[in-house]
Design goal:
heterotrimer, A mainly alpha (293), B alpha/beta (452), C mainly alpha (294), A: 293 residues, mainly alpha, MetI-like fold, 2 strands, C: 294 residues, 2 domains, 16 helices, flat, disordered C terminus
């Protein structure tokens, strides 16, 4: 038995080491830094809660916080619903299904700068019906004059969400196997009872896949809180429309050399994400169904 | 046991990766120490010194730097120059900070408006002693505006090779079409507006004036020509909302919005360049348009003159200078590099491009620079004239951030036509906060310096 | 009728009657239109990558370039260091794939197979690290790496991978849990030690999840932007994504759109190829608690 315990430690030791060096240690350091003024080039100086006070009195912080909330509250539900809807469509093996599955999954592997730069051009609003990007070009083909996207305060955030939704395929990858695992016996039993498709979905299918739904919801919330690259590459005409907490953090740490302030911001973000995760966990008890062993 | 072997393999990998990189550093710094000593003792030893020289820019800049290096090698045997082309703003300053933080800064650093924010943190070398101690070098032949931009509180930290001011380029064909006189050195903003109104033709996508306010020099040109400024002279107060300032900003807003003779951000089409495609009457921007216009314009005639005047002429001037890192291990050699790169031979290579103005007045006034042969623009000499009303950027400690918030506010005014009165108080708050922080930091840095 | 019953051929499709027939027609309409929406951006950029700059943004949209400008793809190699960037990306991605897969697999094995009073707690800690936003550790990590002199090398982008990644550990542990313990036990009786069991018994059965994790890692690091942005300053060391970023018009004057499109499209090919070859493993690799028995 003792040997089993030793082996346990042995095998998980890379994680323990990595955690200590790359997560635990830096977290403590970042906590300390958040109480200092530090610009890397000159020595750190203890300033108490100043960074936190400045943070909460900084208008930019509230802008980026509310932008981030917008992405979380609007983007995440859309992501989950769209992911579910497409997964349901993709579930049944019908001729051509692997083509369709690939088509939806593909965009999610194109997550980098390359595709976002292209999106930037796809969203070009044009002027006087000329020099427009793909999206408004398509809209004009069906007689709609597209919005200004990044250059319009109301559309800059939806533009970012739109681009992110295109990558919904990653979640489909998790939802599909979950859907495939729904018990056929149960569905057939529901059929015999004459349940409608809706009813079947909510009383048989959804409970079974709820752990997967919960999983992607949680991951999406966290990823959205961390969103960085999208607003960097597809910024609004006024960056305060689109910038996220993470962009604000990056700018302060690496462009304005405010490592202390950035660390304080990181801890505020940590706290916000924790609260959201806990809320999510709390509600999860009400709708996530775990098969008893 | 196999699992132990496995861990050993992983560890070896780790060590190897670290070593590849560490050993390079270690061996090279060992060499450097040796040469360093020889340099400090003043002898021109035979050991080779490698000076790392970081700069930003595109293909043009890289070619120029390499050409200068070739010349440098002809006269200098024992200094190797490693040119490092880094990405430009805003990543450039971060790259520099990173290198400095890791204790391995580039020896020679090209810097522009960030010069002061680095100098204040005590990471740049005071060039004063080098200048004074070098009989072959004097600041006198240089344009004052160039040197001033890199002299902070009486200390010179950088020496520029090139500078340029905001100029006005104009499309002669469009002026001819409307029977208008070409603009000249005395053209005022009122005249620009008048001509712009005639030239503007929205149906054909033609605008009289180029986009305004997209960067500091454009805003500054309006402010200064109107007798206003962004900050007070000592950079301690926000002065953009003075009556003259407000007037200048409203004029920009009017030109873009009510008059609609200059495109706002939404009117700038994707996929084409308005000026080189002949859709702009007057382009008010930096001198790099000389080279790009020569290369890209074949469908119309064009020329250039000074940027328009308001109450006074104003030519915001930008430049970049070569600085020395305080952490450099071969300062004497670094100085030799800076000296050569800003000297006459190097500047003649720059001058032959007929783009940015050399900072040595003699080179700038020579035919090497001014004689374009058959190439446009005819009035190229105004490049020198612009330096009469030249002034540098208001590059305070918080430059990049102040610049950014001002830019955002101006974008709201110009591109979204928000009332100036609504935007200014918020901008004032933001800038004042930054200025306060600057003051606080300044005190700390000054204290640190004294401690040293 | 179970609506999830597979339909294997077109012939079978034709035999559908009544409600089923209409449902399947609606389904195809939905699928095809959604696919078109998802694929149009790719089609547009591929067509743009073969156009002259002036033609890309025309209205109405032209799908077939009036003149095929293959030079865009040539320029990509001549006036843009595409090969070097791609090579740099490959280096970063390769080491990460190897290291993170091996280390995560070992840790996952530890969690899946060895009893310890702290097993559950520590596994929860692994999951919890997924919740820790990396920005909390970003600044100190940066300081640590610059203190080590690792900035402007690939080490900060690679070394952390040697110690496993929470998400991968989670996926792999779930997968290993589905492998019957009896297999381990019989191997143990045959004289295998735990490491041999890992390499000889568990690993071969875990090929799908190993490949899945490999693909995820590939995609993550191929597309990673923040890491290289922070740690690399020498353009000669840039990976593709950072190289493309610096190619973007705002930074370099007049943009060569055609070339930018061509380079971006080319950057998409490696993840696409990897996916195409290894597609079937991904579907088999994902096993989340609750969705699959085990």
């Amino acid at each position: 038995m003792g040997s089993e315990k030793r082996k346990f430690w042995l095998y998980i030791s890379p994680f323990i080491f990595g955690f200590t060096v790359f997560i635990g240690g830096p977290m403590i350091a970042s906590m300390y830094l958040s109480f200092t003024r530090y610009d890397v080039l000159t020595p750190a100086e203890w300033i108490g809660f100043d960074n936190y006070i400045r943070l909460f009195s900084n208008e930019r912080f509230w802008d980026v916080l509310s932008n981030t909330f917008f992405y979380v509250f609007v983007g995440v539900p859309l992501h989950v619903i769209l992911g579910l809807a497409i997964s349901v469509l993709l579930l049944r093996a019908i001729p051509g299904i692997s083509f369709f599955r690939t088509a939806f999954y593909l965009p999610s592997i194109f997550g980098g700068v390359a595709i976002l730069l292209l999106w930037n051009y796809m969203l070009a609003p044009g002027f006087g019906g000329q020099n427009v990007g793909l999206i408004n070009g398509l809209l004009s083909m069906i007689g709609i004059e597209g919005p200004g996207w990044s250059s319009d305060s109301n559309w800059a955030k939806p533009a970012v969400i739109l681009v992110k939704l295109w990558g919904v395929g990653g979640s489909i990858l998790i939802l599909l196997p979950a859907l495939a695992g729904v018990s056929k016996d149960l569905l057939e039993a529901a059929d015999i009872d004459g349940a409608s498709s809706f009813r079947k979905f909510f009383s048989v299918t959804f409970p079974t896949i709820s752990p997967a739904v919960f999983f992607i919801t949680t991951m999406e919330i966290i990823n959205t809180f961390k969103m960085f690259i999208e607003p960097m590459i597809i910024p609004g005409l006024d960056k305060s429309w689109t910038d996220t907490l993470m962009v604000h953090l990056y700018n302060n740490a690496f462009e304005y050399f405010r490592m202390g302030y950035a660390s304080a911001l990181a801890w505020v973000m940590f706290f916000v994400i924790m609260v959201f995760t806990l809320i999510n966990l709390y509600f999860a008890k009400k709708w996530v169904y775990y098969e008893s062993k | 046991m196999k699992k132990i072997l496995f861990y050993v393999v992983i560890c070896v990998f780790l060590v190897m990766l670290a070593a590849c990189n560490g050993s390079n550093d270690a061996s090279s710094s060992d060499n450097e120490d040796v040469t360093d000593e020889s340099n400090d003792s003043g002898s021109s030893g035979d050991e080779d010194v490698t000076i790392s020289f970081s700069f930003w820019g595109g293909d043009f800049d890289i070619q120029r730097m390499e050409a200068i290096r070739e010349e440098f090698y002809k006269v200098n045997d024992n200094i190797e120059v490693e040119l490092v082309n880094l990405p430009g703003h805003p990543d450039y300053a971060q790259a520099q900070m990173t290198r400095m933080a890791s204790g391995d800064p580039y020896d020679v650093i090209q810097m522009a408006e960030e010069s002061y924010s680095f100098a204040a943190r005590g990471v740049l070398e005071d060039l004063g002693p080098y200048i004074e101690g070098d009989d072959d070098f004097s600041l006198d032949p240089y344009y004052e505006v160039g040197i001033d931009s890199y002299t902070h509180n009486g200390t010179t930290y950088g020496i520029p090779m090139r500078l340029g001011s905001v100029m006005m380029f104009y499309n002669k064909d469009l002026f001819d079409q409307h029977g208008l006189d070409y603009p000249d050195e005395n053209t005022t903003w009122d005249e620009v507006i008048e001509a712009g109104e005639q030239i503007t033709n929205h149906d054909e996508g033609v605008f009289g004036v180029s986009p305004l306010g997209g960067w500091w020099a454009s805003i500054s040109q309006f402010l200064h020509s109107n007798g206003a400024s962004m900050l007070s002279e000592d950079y301690s107060e926000f002065t953009m909302d003075s009556p003259e300032g407000i007037e200048a900003i409203k004029l920009m807003q009017e030109i873009v919005n009510e008059r609609d003779i200059s495109p706002n951000e939404n009117q700038i089409p994707e996929g084409m360049d308005l000026w080189t495609s002949g859709n702009i009457g007057m382009l008010i921007d930096g001198p790099w348009h000389v080279l790009s216009s020569q290369a890209n314009i074949d469908s119309f005639d064009w020329d250039m003159t000074l940027a328009p005047q308001g109450a006074q002429p104003a030519s915001p001037t930008f430049s970049n200078a070569f600085h020395m890192a305080k952490g450099s291990e071969h300062k004497e050699a670094a100085w030799e590099v800076i000296k050569f790169w800003t000297g006459a031979e190097a500047q003649e290579i720059l001058a032959a491009e007929h783009g940015d103005t050399p900072t040595l007045q003699d080179v700038a006034a020579s035919d090497v620079y001014l004689d374009l042969g058959d190439l446009p623009p005819e009035n190229f000499e105004v490049m020198l004239e612009s330096l009469d009303s030249a002034y540098g950027p208001e590059a305070s400690l918080m430059w990049s951030e102040i610049n950014e918030v001002v830019q955002d506010a101006m974008s709201q005014i110009i591109n979204m036509n928000e009332p100036v009165e609504d935007i200014m108080p918020g901008l004032r708050n933001e800038v004042e906060e930054l200025l306060e922080e600057a003051e606080r930091l300044q005190e700390i840095y000054d204290g640190d310096m004294e401690d040293k | 009728m179970n609506q999830n019953k597979p339909i294997k051929s077109l012939k079978e499709l034709k035999t559908l009657k009544g409600k089923d027939k209409y449902l399947i027609i609606i389904k195809y309409i939905l699928l095809i239109s959604a696919t078109v929406i998802f694929m149009i951006p790719l089609a547009w950029t591929i067509s743009g990558s073969l156009k002259a700059s002036g033609e890309i943004f025309t209205v109405p949209i032209t799908w077939i370039p009036s003149v095929f400008k293959w030079e865009n793809y040539v320029n990509m190699f001549t006036s843009f260091p595409m090969v070097r960037y791609a090579f740099n990306s490959t280096i970063i991605v390769f080491f990460n794939m190897v290291f993170v897969t091996i280390s995560s697999f070992i840790v996952a094995y530890g969690f899946a197979r060895f009893r310890h009073p702290l097993n559950q707690t520590l596994f929860f800690a692994v999951l919890a690290t997924m919740m820790i936003p990396e920005q909390v550790t970003l600044v100190p990590q940066f300081l640590m790496f610059s203190w080590l002199g690792w900035v402007n090398t690939y080490l900060p982008l690679i070394v952390p991978s040697m110690f496993g990644a929470a998400f991968n550990i989670f996926l792999m542990r779930q997968f290993i849990m589905t492998i019957p313990r009896e297999l381990d036990e019989s191997a143990y009786i045959d004289g295998c030690n735990s490491f041999q069991i890992l390499t000889k018994i568990i690993a071969p059965l875990c090929v799908p999840i190993i490949i899945t994790v490999g693909i995820f890692t590939f995609n993550f690091h191929w597309n990673d932007f923040l890491g290289p942005l922070i740690y690399l300053s020498d353009p000669n060391k840039f990976p593709l994504q950072l190289g493309l970023y610096s190619l973007d018009g705002e930074r370099q004057g007049i943009t060569d759109y055609g070339m930018l499109f061509a380079a971006s499209i080319t950057a998409l090919i490696p993840p696409l190829a990897l996916f195409a070859f290894l597609q079937q493993y991904i579907m088999a690799g994902i096993k989340l608690g609750g969705s699959v028995k085990g």
